[in-house]
Amino acid sequence: MKIAGIGFRETAGIDSLRSALTSAGGPDGVMALATAVEKAEAVALVALAAELHLPIRAITPGALAAVETETRSERVAARFGTGSLAEAAALAAAGPAARLLGPRAVSADGMATAAIAEGDGP
């Protein structure tokens, strides 16, 4: 199963999230979107999930912090306890044996990131 992890700034819109997801490889085969619990009800994410007919998986702070990521943002590490929200959310939601299909990708406007992981599920 493929899961797309999404990280984004509070002011990011659906176009930013869509751009990041497209840059990460696109939604084909993706079974769900994943992000931090505190971002799971953001308007832009809910709109993207509805557009793609995908559920949103809200990942707890402990689960995010337990994931080693390929990339690292000090700002994200300070806030979420992991180097990349997109990578950590994707890996946590895709299951213990999950692997990233590539490092996080950034939207054209720099407001969102996405990473796709493949695994057997939680």
Automatic annotation (TrEMBL):
SUPFAM superfamilies associated with the record: CobE/GbiG C-terminal domain-like (SSF159664)
Annotated signal sequence range: none
Keyword Transferase among record annotations: no
Keyword Iron (UniProt): no
Keywords of the record: Hydrolase
All copies of domain CobE/GbiG C-terminal, residue ranges: 3-117
GO terms classed as biological process: cobalamin biosynthetic process
Name assigned to this protein: Cobalt-precorrin 5A hydrolase
